[in-house]
Write a structure and sequence with these properties.
This protein is mainly α. The protein is built from eight helices and no strands. The longest helix has 46 residues. It is globular and about 55 Å long.
Length: 218
């Protein structure tokens, strides 16, 4: 994992960045990345606006799709932008929630996301259709394929989901300008679940044990 480029920030920017990192670590259970990079790119006001916009977007998505599929949508927003950090971390949150609440291993996980990141866009869409072919995964399959069409500007007509998916794409495209720099060569096992669920170490242990058994590694 590469460190973010050194940036010359104002004193107020440095103070806010450090306070944000401290609060983030305490509230979320993992280290924030690219805070200074975002502060440099967007400025203090832009950084605060970004936080408000992302927070509002996530709340709207959770209200409509629930937390697990919201995280999946965000993870693929990162994937379409080539941001490995977001692709791995948000998808992992979806996996953990599904495992905790339904005792299932969702077909898409950070290892699969790493494979998808090496495919062409059309190949990714085809692979999603294959991995989520079962009837129980119809909703996430439809959402991800529609998100792909909107991202590629190939969507036909309008659906009730389009405005929500565009919000997710817009918010993450803005952020990924910075996070993609930090996580350009990062591996799945280096990325924490990007939500407060990261604090549930027992759940993480049980989940990784189950995944290892699934892959025949346990």
């Amino acid at each position: 994992m590469k460190d973010a480029p050194a940036r010359k920030l104002t004193l107020s920017q440095k103070v806010v960045a450090r306070l944000f990192d401290f609060y983030f670590r305490a509230s979320q259970g993992y280290e924030a990345i690219a805070t200074e990079e975002m502060m440099y790119v967007f400025g203090l006001k832009g950084f605060m606006a970004w936080g408000a916009a992302v927070g509002g977007t996530v709340e709207l998505l959770i209200e409509r799709y629930g937390e697990a599929y919201t995280q999946l949508i965000l993870g693929f927003g990162g994937l379409w932008n080539g941001c490995r950090y977001c692709a791995y971390g948000h998808t992992l949150v979806c996996d953990l929630i599904k495992f905790r609440d339904e005792d299932v291993l969702f077909p898409l996980d950070p290892i699969v996301m790493r494979e998808l990141l090496d495919l062409r866009d059309d190949e990714v869409a085809a692979r999603i259709s294959e991995l989520l072919a079962d009837e129980e995964w119809e909703l996430p399959r439809q959402l991800l394929l529609r998100e792909f069409e909107l991202r590629m500007d190939t969507a036909e007509g309008e659906t009730e989901d389009d405005d929500y998916l565009r919000l997710a794409l817009d918010a993450w495209e803005w952020m990924n300008e910075c996070t993609i720099i930090v996580g350009v060569d990062i591996e799945p096992d280096q990325v924490p679940p990007l939500s407060p669920i990261a604090k549930d170490h027992e759940l993480l242990k049980r989940y990784h044990t189950a995944r290892a058994k699934e892959r025949g590694k346990a």
